[in-house]
Amino acid sequence: MTSILLPTDFSDNSINAIHYAVELFQDARCEFYFLNVQRASSFVSDDLMTMQPSTTIYQNLIDTAKKSIEQIITDIKNQYHIDQHVYHSIVDYDNFIDAICQTVDSKGIDLIVMGTHGATGAAQVLFGSNTVRVMQRGNCPVLAIPQHCKYKPIQRIAFTSNYYTAYKAEELQPLLNLAQKNKARIDVIHLIQDEPMSDEQVNNMAFLDGFFINLNHKFVNIDSQDLFETVEEYIQHHDIDLLAMMSRKHSFLERLFTRHTVETFAFKVSVPFLVMENTGAFMG
Question: Where are the beta strands (DSSP E) in the chain?
Fold first, then answer.
């Protein structure tokens, strides 16, 4: 049974991601864990004035969040009637990333599905959205659902690769599972560089060819220097339903002062975006 984590702050954006996940896995046996993470700063003074003397701030926050999650679960059950789905409610009072990582470990989570939306100004450069933070620092594959993206069957997947990093089968498994489940085609997009591919790049490409051997897949070489612009154009012109990418973890200072590929796509991409951690040796 697949275990899926659905973080929610009860916004329309997170509710949309929940519906996408339920529909995406409607034919699979799944356990869905709805997670809300509370912070003390979210409890405002007006709420303090209405509390009974015996009620703690912590308990009031937890009880309210639990009721909200239970309402979401009730709505999902009433709308979809999927017997092979099991739903769990979790409310944590913790740092957001720590709560995510602890839940992933304790519940054996296979995939995190979250909503995402663009950020502007300094917030985009320094912090980003919670979804980007989970991509950067989490310990599980993340499927990010753009704000206004509604579910439709996944028929074509774009997967970007520069072939510089050695792949591991277990790290690519989430992509393979989604492609097999949906009988989707995978287009592996590679931007052509000035110099010919190295032996290591050729070997990494051959690994992908073998890994996807039972899937409809092809390798697409594009002469361009702008990865985001090229991929976004490819998505629009080839009816791509999902973009997949590998990501390497970066230090806090790297995240603070530089913009990495995953962050750029997470803020701007127009289709669901699957990010898997890559721990293989870098050849470039």
Answer: 2-7, 30-38, 85-93, 111-116, 142-146, 156-160, 185-191, 217-222, 242-247, 273-277
Long-range contacts of 259-262, Cβ-Cβ distance < 8 Å, separation of 24 or more: 259/125, 261/227, 261/228, 262/132, 262/135, 262/136
Per-residue pLDDT, 193 = 75
How does DSSP assign 92-146, residue by residue?
Answer: EES-HHHHHHHHHHHHT--EEEEEE----HHHHHHT--HHHHHHHH-SS-EEEEE
User: What does pTM read for this prediction?
Assistant: 0.87
- pLDDT of 109-151, one tens digit each? 999 999 986 544 444 433 447 888 888 888 899 999 998 899 9
Give the separation between CA 137 and CA 140, rounded to whole angstroms: 9
